[in-house]
Amino acid sequence: MTARVIDGKAFALALRDRVGAAVPAFQAATGRVPGLTVVIVGEDAASQVYVRAKGKATEAAGMASVTHRLPADTTQADLLALVTALNADEAVDGILVQLPLPRHIDESAVIDAIDPDKDVDGFHVVNSGRLAAGLPGLVPCTPLGCLMLLEDVLGDLSGLDAVVIGRSNIVGKPMAQLLTAKSCTVTIAHSRTRDLPAVCRRADILVAAVGRAEMIKADWVKPGATVIDVGINRIDADDPGGAGGTKLVGDVDFAGVSAVAGAITPVPGGVGPMTIAVLLRNTLVAAHLRAGLAPPAGL
Ligand code: NAD
Question: Is the CB of 282 within 6 Å of ligand 1?
Fold first, then answer.
């Protein structure tokens, strides 16, 4: 079997278009555009790239984008004061504090200071609790993007065996909660799981969120399974005699697993583009809920 390659880039562009198309109706109803404010502390190169991409995408969707760039020696008290001011600012629908923060700042204290109704990353414990309890709330972007791709490929997920490798608060755990809510039978595997290949082979849906280059091999995958590769790993480019350099790969051995799986996300071009698209979606949803409006259907 040669797996269908899931085009996350195309799906994400279509979602971004749907978000952008819904902005004028929100503006007509409220007299303002939805607004996302991103806060970045320090000079981490990857974070700078992500923050620029988020700002551009927000503007392209017709929403208001503000970025606060703070120096690396910003105190926790100053950062918390900014978050408090953003919580009180009516023009701000979404607040995203880019992680990681410098080591002298307690990340969970900062996340917990964000108004849960503006927490478009979905990391606040109130939103984790809402997700766990099956209540409406803001859901972390990457796992929600994975779920959208899975439903697009498979339709109804009910009764399927799902294995999520990774138990982080930002990917693995919320992914497992979302799949449970869709009536999958869910296993969370992690670094202490015994016989991980055997656990993976049970999966109709296999989500890898580990951060280990090409760890999941073809013989770990049930024939016909749908494989979602969240991992982003930079490795040396395999370029004999070439100029060297690096390339991005996922947690899944794409070439090997493609010969066994029914469908698979590539890296890059799979889950990655979904994260920003869902961030825009979450901002629009947060704006509607804060304004007492029903979020547009189809998002
Ligand atoms: P994390 O480091 O917080 O968690 C990794 C998880 O993998 C842990 O729960 C750990 O138990 C598990 N693990 C580690 N080694 C393992 C092993 N040998 N076998 C089984 N499980 C093992 O990472 P994270 O923040 O959840 O991110 C995971 C990956 O997803 C990273 O590569 C990250 O870059 C990527 N990521 C991508 C996006 C995106 O937009 N595509 C977003 C977030 C994270």
Answer: no
